[in-house]
Every structure is written in structure tokens, then in C-alpha cells.
Design goal:
The complex is a heterodimer of chains A (130) and B (295). Chain A contains 4 helices and no strands. Chain A is mostly helical and 130 residues long. Chain A folds into 2 domains: 60 residues; 39 residues. With 295 residues, chain B is mostly helical. Chain B has 2 domains: 185 residues, Up-down Bundle (Four Helix Bundle (Hemerythrin (Met), subunit A)); 60 residues, no CATH class. Chain B has 11 helices and no strands. Chain B is elongated. The chains are: A mainly alpha (130), B mainly alpha (295). At the A-B interface, helix 1, helix 2 and helix 3 of A face helix 2, helix 3, helix 4 and helix 11 of B.
Chain lengths: 130, 295
């Protein structure tokens, strides 16, 4: 494990890109630090950005982590562009799917609110949004 | 693929490279495998994307349910599982690196470590599931929480029944409830609410018809909590299934590595299983904050 990847004794060049071990270790350390950060922002009171803000912070940190895993653990950085295109198109469709559905959901919000306001015993007002 | 036929048809490469006849070089074969695997991973992302869409719609419609119910998930267990899964992702990436360099024994050791991490993950997941099962924190009509009587902030349904002597029969004790609040609310003048049972206890068909009694509006309880646990079990359950499949695949490639099946010119199964395992990690990276860290 301590040997440098370039001094291996094989006749052929290795298949795929051999990611140097320090890069892998550094990726892991950054990932662990980001995990600590994403837990930390939920504990620290001054990091509370409200319901939507907290969600976006959590998603942002998760996306940074996922990008690191894809780039270095999954070798995306060293692959041909077609792999990144496949991934990005997939993610674009997921975002489109979720986004359009949420837009649609939002259209129904006024009627849902009216329905709930008619029955305040069953649907408590916003207790937890502080 | 039959290795004997492929090695017989290609003389330019040493045996054990598993070069299929329709590929010219091991590098070309490996690139094709990587591309195919990423296409498969794309379908997996779309599969989980559908589930994340369910999550998004439920949370957008019932934010209070998610903020209430996520407290029953252990943040620390979730964080430990995240760390375990990240470490397993590292070990399998290092295992692929060793396979690329032809260090089979180190590769097998790292695959074994990955297996261990995956088992720890599933073990912790089992503890969490068992806890939910015992507490009745399940999906749909299986949601029968036993904890609610002990939580003070959220009035349990039993508290609603405790209020009923004053609300259900206002005629028996006419002074106290009627003095504080008149029974028919002005918003719904033709609702004969004084003769009906309180809405929380009435059959579902009567809930809309009866005007709510003022005493019960204080008993604020989060409803439809079972939707959170439905989403929770759906997402983590499918993820755990992927972990289980990944563990089986890791056992398979580890045994083949120990059997000397791979060389620097052919380690495609190790690399593909690693890609699959990383995807499992990626999904969890999103699941952890979305389910455990709501605030």
C-alpha cells in the first residue's frame, strides 16, 4: 500500500486511471468533514436558516459530497466525457421530474389550505416552524 | 463469456485477460464495460429519483409531519452509518486501485474490509428497524405509536379522550365549558355541534359537518405521521436491498480475486461492483440529511 503506483512491475499500462492513494485518502477525509458539517449545522442554533434554507444547505452539502465520490472514487474525473454526459442528463431528468411535480403540487396548495382551515382540530397550525 | 474461446481467438494478449472476440484491446473492453455500467447506474438514479419525488411531494404538502416525525430517527446512528458507508466506499476504491496494479491479496483484503463495513451498516439498520417495529412507528395503518403517551409536547390521542367528559356531554356539566366558550362557532351557523360528539372522536363523515369545539383546538396533534414512516421505509428499505445485493457481489468478486481470476488486464467485475457500491453510497449521502437531519 505504501508503494507509489508508478513503480508497479507490470508490462502493460493499467486499465483506467489509477487514482493515487493520497487523493483517495484526502477525498475520504473531506467527505467525513462534510458529514460532520451537515450534522453540525443542525445542532448549532445560529446556523438555522429556516425550513427552506436548512433544506438547501443540506442538499448543497450532500451534492458536494456526491460530486467528490463521483469524481474520485468513481473515477468520473478521469473518464471520457460521455460518462459525465450520461450522468448529467440523468440528473437533469430527475431534477425536471421532481421540479415539475413540485410545481404541480404547489398549484393545489390553496385548496389544500382551505380544506385544512375548515377543520382546525384535525390539522393543527404550524407548530414547528419557528 | 467462455474464456477458452476468447483466448484462443486472440493471440496478441496473454491468457487470463478475458478479451472477448468483439474487442480489440483490453482497454477498449474495459471502457465499454465502464460505459455500460454507468448506463445501468443512470437507471438506478432514475429509480431512486422517483422515490425522491414521492418524498418531495409529501414533504412539501406536510412539512410539519416531517419535522415532527424525524425526531424518532436516531441522528447519531444515521451519522455512524454515513461514516461507515463512506469508509466502505474508500476501501473499495482502494481495492480497485490494487486490482488495477495487480495486487490481488491487498485487493481481496480491501474488499473484505468493504464487506465488513457493509455488514456493520446493515446491522445498525437492523437495530433501527427493530426499534421502529417495537414502537409501532410503521407505514400506513400499521402506524400505532406507543410512545405518544410519554411525549409531553404533542398531545396524544388519549389526551383528547381525557377531555371528552367536558366536551362530549356539555349538558351534564353546563357551567364550565359553556362559560369559557359557546359551542356553536359563528363560522358554521347551521352545524348542531352541541348534540354531536367532538370532531376528533366523531366518525370521519361527521368531521366536516360538525363545527370544532374550542376546547379541542388546543389539543394540537400532528396528523398523518404515517406518511413519513412510509417514505422512510420505502427509501431506506430499497437502499438496504441495494446494500444487500452489493454485499453479495462483493463476496463474489472477493472470492474470485482470491482465486486469482483477475489481472491488471482484466478486473472488470471488481471495478463494476465498486461503481455499484459507490452508487449505494451516493444514495445514502442524500438519504441521511433528507430523513435524519430535518430542522
Amino acid at each position: 500500500m505504501s508503494r507509489h503506483p508508478t513503480d508497479s512491475d507490470q508490462p502493460h499500462p493499467p486499465l483506467g486511471h489509477v487514482v493515487p492513494l493520497p487523493v483517495l485518502v484526502l477525498t475520504l477525509l473531506v467527505l467525513l468533514a462534510l458529514t460532520g458539517l451537515t450534522v453540525g449545522v443542525t445542532v448549532l442554533p445560529w446556523m438555522n436558516l429556516g425550513r427552506l434554507g436548512n433544506l438547501w444547505v443540506a442538499l448543497l452539502i450532500a451534492t458536494v459530497k456526491a460530486t467528490l465520490v463521483a469524481l474520485y472514487f468513481m473515477h468520473l474525473r478521469y473518464e471520457k466525457p460521455i460518462i459525465a454526459i450520461i450522468l448529467c442528463v440523468t440528473l437533469a431528468f430527475v431534477i425536471l421530474f421532481v421540479g415539475l411535480t413540485l410545481k404541480d403540487t404547489r398549484e393545489y396548495q390553496p385548496s389544500i389550505q382551505t380544506y385544512r382551515a375548515a377543520d382546525p382540530t384535525r390539522y393543527a397550525p404550524d407548530l414547528y416552524n419557528k | 463469456m467462455s474464456s477458452s474461446a476468447s483466448s484462443a481467438s486472440t493471440t496478441a494478449h496473454p491468457p487470463g485477460t478475458h478479451l472477448a472476440h468483439h474487442f480489440q484491446t483490453p482497454a477498449q473492453q474495459f471502457e465499454a464495460a465502464v460505459q455500460g455500467m454507468w448506463l445501468f447506474l443512470a437507471t438506478e438514479i432514475l429509480l431512486f429519483g422517483g422515490l425522491f419525488c414521492i418524498y418531495a411531494v409529501f414533504r412539501a404538502n406536510n412539512p410539519e409531519v416531517f419535522e415532527y416525525a424525524h425526531r424518532y430517527l436516531s441522528k447519531s446512528l444515521g451519522a455512524i452509518n454515513t461514516v461507515v458507508l463512506l469508509c466502505s466506499s474508500f476501501t473499495i476504491a482502494a481495492g480497485v486501485r490494487c486490482a488495477q496494479l495487480g495486487r490481488s491479496r491487498q485487493s481481496a483484503t480491501l474488499l473484505g474490509l468493504t464487506l465488513l463495513c457493509g455488514l456493520v451498516f446493515l446491522g445498525i439498520k437492523y437495530v433501527e428497524y427493530q426499534h421502529k417495529w417495537k414502537e409501532g412507528l410503521l407505514w400506513g395503518h400499521h402506524y400505532r405509536p406507543e410512545h405518544e403517551a410519554s411525549t409531553s409536547l404533542h398531545a396524544p390521542p388519549e389526551a383528547g379522550t381525557a377531555d371528552t367528559p367536558t366536551t362530549a356531554s356539555p349538558l351534564a356539566d353546563p357551567d364550565a365549558p359553556l362559560a369559557t366558550a359557546p359551542a356553536p362557532t359563528p363560522t358554521d351557523p347551521d352545524a348542531p355541534s352541541a348534540t354531536f360528539a367532538p370532531p376528533a372522536l366523531a366518525p370521519p363523515g361527521l368531521r366536516g359537518a360538525t363545527a370544532p369545539l374550542p376546547e379541542l383546538t388546543g389539543a394540537q396533534r400532528v396528523h398523518n405521521v404515517q406518511t413519513f414512516f412510509g417514505v422512510y421505509f420505502l427509501l431506506t428499505g430499497l437502499h438496504a436491498l441495494h446494500v444487500l445485493v452489493g454485499l453479495g457481489l462483493i463476496v463474489w468478486v472477493a472470492l474470485r480475486t482470491l482465486g486469482g481470476a483477475f489481472s491488471p488486464l482484466y478486473f472488470t467485475p471488481v471495478a463494476m461492483v465498486a461503481l455499484y457500491w459507490h452508487l449505494v453510497d451516493l444514495i445514502w449521502i442524500y438519504l441521511f440529511p433528507l430523513l435524519y437531519l430535518i430542522h
